[in-house]
Design brief:
This protein has about 300 residues and is α+β, with helices and mostly antiparallel strands. It has helices at about 1-15, 120-135, 140-150, 155-170, 175-185, 190-205, 205-215, 225-235, 240-255, 260-270, 275-290, 295-305; strands at about 25-35, 45-50, 55-60, 65-75, 75-85, 90-95, 105-110. It has a four-stranded antiparallel β-sheet with strand order 3-2-5-6, covered by helices on one side. Strands 4-1-7 form a three-stranded mixed β-sheet, with no helix packed on it.
Amino acid sequence: MLAHRYVLVAAALALAVPAFAQDWKGMGRLEGRVLDPDGKPLPDVTVKLNLPSRGGGTTIKTDKKGHWAIGGIASGAWQIDLEAPGYAVKKITLNLPSESARLAPIDVKLEKPAPTGPPPEVREALEKGDAAFKEGRFADARAEYEKLLALRPELADTLYRQIAFTYSREGNYAKEVAYLEKVLQSNPTDLNLKLLTAQEALQGGMLDKGLELLKGIDDSTIKDPAVFYNVAVLLRNAQKPEEAIVYLTKAITVDPTYVDGYFQRGLAYLGLQKTAEAKADFQKVIELAPTGAQAETAKKALQQLK
């Protein structure tokens, strides 16, 4: 009878998960802030967002506080170009591991363009690399970035990141992580970079490396529960529910009202057949957010677990 109940719960939860759309739209969210070199907000910056895996994207602007946000998007590796008159274009990539994930807002500084242009061979390699990257010719882009690295070794950190992103687009997480670790060697205190490297390692199935990188991060420095939540989502996807529960608990410790943390931890406990713990988390979901899809799913689970 107990096994039958779990089948019913699993079926109810499966029905509660919407199918992915066939374009860039979904239920996810990203946000950030754009600053000038002195750390002041930059308004009216053009923010171009593109999700190559879904073949589309959109363009928005920052507000007077330099803030931008977009909801209703699919998960995946979002390519983001930040453009403003008088500043160099900034290219970043934000990986949204799932539509339910909530990434911490990211601050990005735009720099003034160099007063003098680079040598022609440097400019040519950069332009070719960026053009190939935009066209999805990642091997060609990588070759140009490596050529530029030989010409301008002082740009190693920036170029290593770009090379890492080309490997990411190809799904070669091992090579991506290797290049991100090169950047970490010269930026060992960069918390965001260490988290990105750990998340990409987990995404690529390198669980030991990802967890080892996370060990080097002081939990007390993380104030956003979404950071721990995103790690937990990757661990759940890797069929590591016990480890996922550890990070969901950390997320709830940071914010005891974090509904997503209780909901996902309840699902993880349910998968481990820890009914008492699952019930407690589902009841907390209903207490904190009595309406909505998560509350309805929690109610169905509790009914089946009676």
